[in-house]
Amino acid sequence: MSTVAVTDDTFDAEVKNSEIPVVVDFWAEWCGPCKQIGPALEELAAEYGDKVKIAKVDVDSNPNSAAAMGVRGIPALFIFKDGQVVSNRAGAAPKAALQSWIEEAL
User: Fold this and answer.
1) Which residue, 40, 38, 23, is CA-closest to 79?
2) Which residues constitute the catalytic centre (predicted)?
3) Has 101 been annotated as catalytic?
4) Contact between residue 55 and residue 42 where contact means Cβ atoms under 8 Å apart
5) Please, what is the angle between helix 32-48 and helix 95-105, to 10°?
């Protein structure tokens, strides 16, 4: 599975109502650190397959979702499980660090 683009309109359906855990990446095209972690998130999405969904929310196009989550800086990452946030972190990190953070939250 690859990453899923989520919008303000699809946030509840794709994230809060998901049957599987969801990692949400709030990002923007102009954000350097966001671009750094993008490839790692794509790889993790492929590795986790249908066990974990990795969703990306462009904060410029979808400000309501970011505001609802209290996002003040990007990249901002949240893990949702059963519709609730179970963990969050801000800033770029190497793939191994992202993977261990996801594993701990699951």
Assistant:
1) 23
2) 31, 34
3) no
4) no
5) 60
Query: Any catalytic annotation for residue 31?
Result: yes
Supply the Cα-derived Rg of the chain in whole angstroms. Answer: 12
Measured between alpha carbons, how far is 32 from 49 in angstroms, rounded to an integer? 26
Would the CA dihedral through 84, 87, 90, 93 be positive or negative? negative
The pTM for the full model equals: 0.96
Return the CATH architecture of domain 1-73. Answer: 3-Layer(aba) Sandwich (3.40)
Residue 1, pLDDT score: 75
Considering 22, 23, 34, 52, which one is annotated as catalytic?
34
The single residue of 23, 31, 52, 55 carrying the catalytic annotation is 31
Sequence spans of domains, the chain:
1-73
- Is residue 9 a contact partner of residue 63, using CB atoms and an 8 Å limit? no
Residue 91: the pLDDT is 95
Residues lower than pLDDT 70 in the chain: none
